[in-house]
Amino acid sequence: MNPLIVTIVSFFILGAPSLDASPEGDNASTHRLLIFGASGRLGGYIVEEALLRGHHVTAVSRDATRLESFKGRVNVESADILDHIRLAYLIGQHDAVIVSVGGTPRDSDPSNYIVPRAAQSLVEVMESMEAKGTRLLFVGNLYTLKYEDDKTLLELGRVDESHQNFAMFYGHQLALDIFRQSSNVDWTVASPPNGLRLKGRTGMVRWGGEQLLRDDDGAPSTISPEDFAYAVLEELQQGNYIRKLFNVAR
Q1: Which of 116, 213, 229, 242 sits CB 3.0–4.6 Å from 208 for a disulfide?
Q2: Euclidean distance between CA atoms 47 and 66, whole angstroms
Q3: Which of 138, 211, 204, 150 is nearest to 176 (CA)?
Q4: What gap in Å lies between CA 139 and CA 133, rounded to an integer?
């Protein structure tokens, strides 16, 4: 038997320490959320939106000291999303996983970028755990969306391999491919159409599938980080894009 599976199974046979009891008044719409990348700018907004909705949140960062502002309001955990054992332990205690990771690529190879590596780690662990029913919401980007002629910017050849962010852009496409090839993961990839250029939470958003949302003048639309976080939590509740990619704009 695969050593990973043996280790994961042992967690559930021996019993893993449980989270604190749910807050009084919890109902079917309240979830135990595991949020990776919570110390990042967008991840922080997602945590705040989740708390606003009354969810029980575990905020995760490789460096827990970066989560000091959340202490007392959420469970704080230090973990590497590439660590299968730690990942399985945490996923096993939650109803849904939200992932917002990224940063500057360490080299020009997209497969080395953290985004596809995180996607692969999540799929391997969740399929080994047979965690179907545990929602996975993963933050994508513009370069996975159909830009024009039903093709992405990458498919249109708009991004040369010499571009400084090529590994980042193509890395998100690799992650989406990994999710699409999975057989037992209830994934959703959520992408802003053209960055997070606005400010404030309005809750007034437009929803789209894989086709890039545009403004009336034809320019790619944008959104605020607050409204993007709102949309991620709305999708968790509504479940309209399970095993699908979507973008959302104001």
Answers
A1: 213
A2: 14
A3: 138
A4: 19
pLDDT for position 205: 97
Reported confidence tier of residue 30, pLDDT bands at 50, 70, 90? confident
C-beta atoms surrounding 203 within 10 Å: 10
Poorest-confidence range of 13-22, 125-134, 135-144?
13-22
Three-class SS of residue 43? helix
Q: Side chain identity at 149, as an amino acid letter?
A: D
Average pLDDT, the chain: 90
Look at residues 163, 230, 220, 147 and name the one whose alpha carbon lies nearest to residue 190.
Answer: 230
Q: What is the residue whose two structure tokens read 């999303």? A: 81
pTM for the whole structure: 0.88
Cα separations in angstroms, 246 against 37, 120, 146, 188, 210: 20, 20, 10, 8, 5
Tokens of 225: 């980080």
Residue type, 154: L
Helix axes 84-91, 3-14, angle to 10 degrees: 40
Per-residue CA distances from 13 to 7, 10, 16, 17 (Å): 10, 5, 9, 12
Query: Which DSSP state fits 188?
Result: E
Quote the CA–CA distance of 1 and 6 in Å, as a whole number: 7
Q: Which of 133, 230, 143, 237 is nearest to 187 (CA)?
A: 133
